Amino acid sequence: MGKSRTKRFKRPQFSPTGDCQAEAAAANGTEPEEDDGPAAELLEKLQHPSAEVRECACAGLARLVQQRPVLPGLARRDAVRRLGPLLLDPSLAVRETAAGALRNLSACGGFEVCDDMVTKDIMTPLVALLKECSTGLDSNEMSPQKKKDQNRNSIENIANEAINVLWNICECSSRAVSIFNKEGCLEIVLKYLSRFSTNVDLAISVAYCLQTVTEDNPELLKSVSTPALHVLESAMLSPVNSMEYFLLKTLVAGTIWNLKDIIPSKSQAEVINAILKILSEVLEMDAGETVIQMKEAETQRIKTTAETEDTLQNANGDDLMEDDEMEEIPHRRKVRRKTFISDLLPPTDKELREAIALLTAQQTALEIIVNMCCSEDPTDDEWEELSSSDESDAFMESSLSECGGQLLSPLCLSHEVHTALTHHLLPKKIFDKTAFPNSIAVDVCSRNPTWKPLIRKMNTVQCRALVCLQSLVSLLDVDHLGGPAALQTLAQHLSQLLFSQPDFAKHIDFLEAISSALRALLQTMASKNIPQCMTPDQLMTLCNAGVHSSNVGVRVNVVSILGITGSVLAKEDGTLDTLKTIGYFLLEVATKDPCLVVAGEALDALFDVFADGKEAEMASVQIKLLSTLKEFQPVFKMKIRKEGRTKYSPDQLCVLDNVKMNLRRFIAYQEIVEKRLTT
């Protein structure tokens, strides 16, 4: 039903897997149980006069909320309203654990829980806490150095938990975003971002939050000042090149892209050049080799540490024993609140953090490029109106203009932009990321439980690259993609990726991504009369697997691919049998797929395949195309009338109405064809 539009990427709810320490769980009775008895006990302890008890209760709740069955019970017992005031508890430790519990609750509960948290006014104490932390960091600068460091760490830890709560809630609730705008939270969180040089973890959390709240938020744009832009600029152009800083800079680049509507026309080139320069640098890195190197570094570090400890114990065993005996036993065991939840950058060993940061940065970079491809180009009048902002001009005339290099701009803006894109080799770098993950890196990760989740991250990067490739193929000129030969090479590459996996149909994300890329590529090749590379057998293997997928997107893609290929074959000689096979297949899908969107795409493909050509006309008669469509026409109309308004969006209904009208016209055309061929 026409060319597909790539969906914009939203930040998915991250899936928490981290647990509180077992000691805290056992002490608070938070092991999984079917009733909400533990929840009731923990919620009661939140009011205890002892800060230590309140802290442990929050820690127990932080673990408990990761068990989805307990969430309704916590909602009945008003857990949010009980935890909320503890964000402003006199004890810093309680504040941090309360924020950690709310962070887990917002992450595990999803949209409904987050919206309920806003209804129960969690934003009031949350915003107050963020303001207090900001003020606390300012006043702390006057303290003695040792105390300053201790206080700063505590306050920044609290702020990090609170920012993550804010991020999760704003991701799920437009009301939370409205409150964010109204309460002037932008200025607050930017103050935390400005500390990126001393606390990159906090800065990354802020950058994630900013990327969320700045997307499609015109109200917020009014409050973006010159100092705010300078903070973003400083973070994005940081000279530090560690993996975590690459992630930070990528996220900030995404935020600045979201703010593009306040950038004057004369500064577009410099700003977008800076954005794509960072994305290019991130994608240039070999994530597989990095994972291997980081795992080797971790192994060596652990080995060296163990050898050092053995040496010290052998040399000073007696002294160490005396020291151990004299050491005062603490009255309670401190709970490491940072381990409440598995963050996108979990607080684990440095090497693992670095590897995760790079993979996340590459995934984010690819998503930003896709979103840039999907952005609508503002009119010249809009850009002219925006250019009146003196403050934005002052910002853009700063060091962003010093990034150097060829002009880079959004993919939809101009021919010059396309040229610059290829100059920076982004299509080539994206192409490279579509390959399967490094097999050695996968093997290394598979043998270590803490590294095993990286396999999924590597696969996700591949899928994002395939979607990104789809966008580039749809938007760039053939010359900017390397010419006809390069497109044929790309088609062979995608075919090899697909058919090198015997069980490709089981990998839904991969199948949807690669079928989307193939669809866009074959459409471009067909429009430029470039010979296609998939054999009929390969084509039908893909379609037979894809059409039985539970994913509607996969089914739509394979049907469209069949229509594109069939329309090309219809113009060639000796393709009668293949066209008949395609026709039977598309009729089967059109008449039997339960989804009207897929059925409509199959009908659209039939219109394309059998619209013209001697071979196509003969095939249409032999497969009884006319009689089958005439029989199906009233059924299709009835299904649209019956299911349309309840199951499909207005845009989908509009397309289906067009298909219905085209079906009537196509039947009239086929009547003429059949009459001519049978008389």
From TrEMBL:
Keywords: Erythrocyte maturation, Phosphoprotein, Repeat, Ribosome biogenesis
CDD domains found in the cross-reference section: Syo1_like (cd13394)
Origin: domain of life: Eukaryota
Domain SYO1-like TPR repeats: from-to ranges: 416-671
GO BP: erythrocyte maturation; protein import into nucleus; ribosomal large subunit biogenesis
Listed Pfam families: HEAT_EZ, TPR_SYO1
Basic residues bias: start-end ranges: 1-11
GO molecular function: unfolded protein binding
Annotated stretches, region: Disordered: 1-39
InterPro entries: ARM-like, ARM-type_fold, SYO1-like, TPR_SYO1
Annotated function: Plays a role in ribosome biogenesis and in nuclear import of the 60S ribosomal protein L5/large ribosomal subunit protein uL18 (RPL5). Required for proper erythrocyte maturation.
Family affiliation: Belongs to the nuclear import and ribosome assembly adapter family.
Subunit relationships: Component of a hexameric 5S RNP precursor complex, composed of 5S RNA, RRS1, RPF2/BXDC1, RPL5, RPL11 and HEATR3; this complex acts as a precursor for ribosome assembly.
Protein name in the entry: HEAT repeat-containing protein 3
Source organism of the structure: Muntiacus muntjak
Organism placement in taxonomy: Eukaryota, Metazoa, Chordata, Craniata, Vertebrata
